[in-house]
């Protein structure tokens, strides 16, 4: 029997209150961290920033996982396209359902999964602003700094779930 432990953090909307967290010094070298919008560079910058936080806490870095990336990217795009902001899709599927559909859980006897989501406009749509926001939220921070998580998928979609410009992020964690 498979043991599932889900760590679900509260949804976060990147707002100016999140901008006050000092950046980890190592994070200053993350290329693309201050560039708005979704791209391969945005995914790499987000991973770099998250791993800088983990290293500062004495944790191993997260590794990108193709299947978790597929789940996270699909969810970020879906939230923008269908204009909603939630861990559950409009059809009612939770992040665990999306991850299972990729086949990520099939070869594992036990696993732990979690998800962080967020969105912001303007300068709050950058990977640095998003990671700062998550680190200012206890639930999101707990996912980022969980020893149980070893893998991550990162999805960044251009646009806001409310319509308009910005960037919408989804990170799916696995361990």
- Cα end-to-end separation: 16 Å
The share of residues in extended strands comes to 15-25%
Mean pLDDT figure: 87
Low-confidence parts lasting 5 or more residues at pLDDT below 50?
1-24
**Rg over CA atoms:** 15 Å
The strand count comes to: 6
Portion in helices: 25-40%
Helix and strand composition category = alpha/beta
Shape: globular
- Helices and strands, in order, run as EEHEHHEHHEE
Oligomer category: single chain
Question: Major beta sheet, specifics?
Answer: 6 strands, mixed
Number of helices: 5
Please give a structural write-up.
This protein has 175 residues and is an alpha/beta fold. The protein has helices at residues 40-56, 66-81, 95-101, 127-135, 138-144, and strands spanning 3-8, 12-13, 63-64, 110-120, 151-158, 167-174. Strands 1, 2, 3, 4, 5 and 6 form a six-stranded mixed sheet that branches. Strand 5 (151-158) and strand 6 form a beta hairpin. Helix 2 (66-81) packs across helix 3 (95-101). The longest helix has 17 residues, at 40-56. The radius of gyration is 15 Å and the shape is globular.
Give a short overview.
This protein is α/β, with parallel strands linked by helices. The chain is built from five helices and six strands; from the N terminus they run ββαβααβααββ.
Features:
175 residues, 21% strand, alpha/beta, single chain
Ordered list of secondary-structure elements with their pairings:
Blueprint: E1 3-8, E2 12-13, H1 40-56, E3 63-64, H2 66-81, H3 95-101, E4 110-120, H4 127-135, H5 138-144, E5 151-158, E6 167-174
Parallel strand pairs: 1-4, 2-4, 3-5
Antiparallel strand pairs: 4-6, 5-6
